[in-house]
Write a structure and sequence with these properties.
Structural class: alpha/beta
CATH architecture of the largest domain: 2-Layer Sandwich
CATH superfamily of the largest domain: Uridine Diphospho-n-acetylenolpyruvylglucosamine Reductase, domain 2
CATH class of the largest domain: Alpha Beta
CATH topology of the largest domain: Uridine Diphospho-n-acetylenolpyruvylglucosamine Reductase, domain 2
Oligomer: single chain
Number of helices: 5
Radius of gyration: 16 Å
Strand content: 15-25%
């Protein structure tokens, strides 16, 4: 089954994404990984009129040490990045080890 028609936007900044979400309100759904949203759209369980793809927003994909020494992982950071990042290996080795076992297979 195919999803019903929808508009697609791919903003490149968080400001653009927030503007689109504000503009379209509940009609819009953010698209991050798509592992849950796309299948539910294919079965027509979710029928958003607008998809806002967050993948092009580079500022949301990062791994860094915070000013307070904490570990910061951005919302759009890929699991593969987490699995291979040296800072993760140093600060959160168990998190790194679990990455191959997370998500749909």
């Amino acid at each position: 089954m195919k999803p019903p028609p929808f508009e697609y936007f791919a903003p490149t900044t968080t400001a653009e994404a927030l503007e689109l979400l504000s503009q379209f309100g509940y009609e819009a759904k953010p698209l991050a990984g798509g592992q849950s949203l796309i299948p539910t759209m294919n079965f027509r369980l979710a029928q958003p009129g607008v998809l806002i793809d967050l993948n092009p927003i580079a500022e949301l994909a990062y791994i860094r040490r915070g000013d307070d020494g904490s570990l910061r992982i951005g919302a759009m950071t890929r699991q593969r990045q987490v699995e291979r990042d040296p800072l993760i290996a140093e600060r959160a080795p168990l998190l790194r080890e679990t990455m191959p076992y997370i998500a749909h297979s």
